[in-house]
Design brief:
Elements lengths: L3 H7 L6 E4 L3 E5 L7 E7 L11 H17 L8 E3 L3 H4 L8 E5 L9
Antiparallel strand pairs: 1-2, 2-3, 3-5, 4-5
The structure holds guanosine-5'-monophosphate and zinc ion.
């Protein structure tokens, strides 16, 4: 499949991994937008949040939170983002949760 995140899962292209289990993978974003910027993805190819069920979404967010805590975000927090399709600014069509931390982030987005 021509999906860059599936290729990272398969080890066909490199990714700096932060966490891996049977269902989920977390790795650092190649173009970090903050001092800490990693992605949590399902290993199953699911294009967007719209195709994901509640159980998977719970696991993704719970893991994103756990890893953010492990990366030192407890005191100052972080941002947890899921972009969806065109209007949401999604550029990789494999569901992913962004976790950004290590600096104050602006709101609202542009
Ligand atoms: P989106 O815009 O779809 O929400 O986010 C996709 C993210 O994937 C972007 O932040 C982009 O930098 C990241 N990304 C795209 N290609 C690669 C890659 O090959 N490796 C890694 N580690 N991140 C990638
Ligand atoms: Zn994929």
């Amino acid at each position: 499949m021509d999906c860059i995140f599936c290729k990272i899962i398969a080890g066909e292209i490199p990714g700096k991994k932060l966490y891996e289990d049977d269902e989920l993978l977390a790795f650092y974003d190649v173009h970090p937008q903050a001092p800490l910027h990693f992605l949590v993805i399902p290993k199953k190819h699911i294009p967007t949040i719209l195709e994901a069920d509640a159980v998977l979404l719970g696991k993704l967010l719970a893991k994103a939170k756990e890893l953010a805590l492990g990366e030192g975000c407890e005191e100052k927090g972080a941002r947890f983002v899921i972009n969806c399709k065109e209007d949401g600014g999604q550029t990789v069509d494999h569901l992913h949760v962004h976790v950004l931390g290590g600096r104050p982030l602006l709101w609202p987005p542009g």
